[in-house]
Recover the amino acids of this structure.
């Protein structure tokens, strides 16, 4: 466990080792919640949305959009 300092504006700097370990990027949002007497930061899980996008990209990579438009009519 590591002690962190709270700045004047309530900001806390996450140590670089933790940032790297969790793959956090500058500007990325994290969830903060309170549990008993703990403050917990959580990295959002991008499971569902990313999987759907990747499946669609893979599944439709050989499809021509003109064919899709024609089929929709």
């Amino acid at each position: 466990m590591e002690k962190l300092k709270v700045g004047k504006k309530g900001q806390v700097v996450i140590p670089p080792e933790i940032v790297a370990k969790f793959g956090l990027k500058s500007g990325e949002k994290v969830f903060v919640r309170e549990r008993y007497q703990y403050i917990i930061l959580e990295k959002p899980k991008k499971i569902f949305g990313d999987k759907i996008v990747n499946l669609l990209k893979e599944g439709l990579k050989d499809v021509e959009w003109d064919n899709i438009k024609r089929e929709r009519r």
User: Anything to note?
Assistant: The chain has three helices and two strands.
